[in-house]
């Protein structure tokens, strides 16, 4: 009988110990999982924020590069337009036309495009007048 009481007491004690431990352990595990999830979520949020900040820096740098390239192209175009104007004033129409042809690959501002169109028209008229004048002089010698 003593043996049964001791065995029964031991079994009851172990059952209570296991039952109590499993509840605490499951709460502890659940708490640990929540903490790990929160820590991971915070780390992901920080990484996303850092990536966003880096992305903004990259976009800003790209914008600056585009502005610099545009300014360089605009300056180059203006240089060619000014050269063509100078050649027109020197009555070197074919050279002026060649200078304007170099603008083909460049993007022009609205003002630059107006200047180019005006110069082309001026060159066409000057060349036409030169040809008309030359044919008139040629006709004088035929007589």
Q: Give the overall pLDDT as a whole number.
A: 78
Which oligomeric state applies? single chain
Q: Number of helical runs?
A: 3
* Alpha-beta content class: mainly alpha
Order of helices and strands: HHH
Percent range for helical residues?
over 70%
Q: What general outline do the C-alpha atoms trace?
A: rod-shaped
C-alpha-based Rg, rounded:
44 Å
Largest sheet: none
Q: Termini, distance in Å?
A: 156 Å
Give a written overview of the molecule.
By secondary structure, the protein is mainly α. The chain has a domain at 64-142. It has 3 helices and no strands. It has helices spanning 2-89, 93-101, 110-142. Helix 1 (2-89) packs antiparallel against helix 2 and helix 2 runs antiparallel to helix 3 (110-142). It starts with a helix and ends with a helix.
